[in-house]
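Q: What structure does this chain adopt?
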Amino acid sequence: MFIPVTTQAADNEATAGELLSMLDQADTNGKKVIELLVERTAQGMSWANAYVTPARHAPKFCAPQEQPALNLTGTLSIDIVRDRVKHHPSDKNEPFGTILLDGLRERFPWPQTK
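A:
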């Protein structure tokens, strides 16, 4: 089974469509690996988002402030990608990280960009 891991540019990253297809076809262990990959990608985006505070740059998305804090699990992150592709079918051809970030921005917009 191919797992969409790369150290190269996003151009070589699995597309959202490829990721969802691999997930739908994977066995239980494969699904866990893919969910972990997507979860780690989302956590990295969350860290980057926290770093770009308004004093530096506008964050890319605005995580809800209520408790418990937003936990970008693999399942939630995949749901965000799947929902984005459902509503924007051409997104299936874009790198999954790009679509995840677009989905996070859409689901949790920064107040100034609403």
